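Homework help board

Subject: predicted structure for assignment chain

Our instructor gave us this sequence and asked us to write out the predicted structure in token form, then describe one feature. I got the tokens but I'm not sure how to describe them. Can anyone check?
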Amino acid sequence: MSRQKSRTQRKAEFLQAAEAMYERLEDWYDAHPAASFEELEAELRDQRRELLGQTLATLIVGRDTGFALQPAACAQCGRPREFIGYRPWTVKGLEGDSRLERAYYTCPVCEGQGFSPSGPEATAARRPLECRCGAGGDAPGAASQVLRFGGGGFCGCGGAQHVGR
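My token output:
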């Protein structure tokens, strides 16, 4: 997945993925012409989850990855952090799993003190994607379950809430 994209590029990526999903469904139905409605629905459900996960990743990562030309200073020593690369993680959602990525910086002085900045697009269900423990308020309904996976965000729990998830 490439980094930031324009709205037109994100839309084109979605339409291409949706078209590919439809073609796979047509191919599956050609190979299983006697499939019942329930079997066809089950196949579509699996493909839909994949499409929705990809769509969420395109919307989030395609807008902001947290990269900054002038990164934040190290919280310990105050020196500029260095960009290391992009760190991926998977968010397990009810409607699809999304592979997201954020820019990752370390402090060369403080032995790798790491940092992944959040951004305006790194918010869903009224809390940052980096804060996946449930701290910071309860989102209504199923939206709160989208962010149930992960660890050690900016929530202040220090990862203690993430053990065993």
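Reply (TA_rk): Your tokens look well-formed. For the description, you could write something like this. DSSP finds three helices and five strands in the chain. That's the kind of observation they're looking for.
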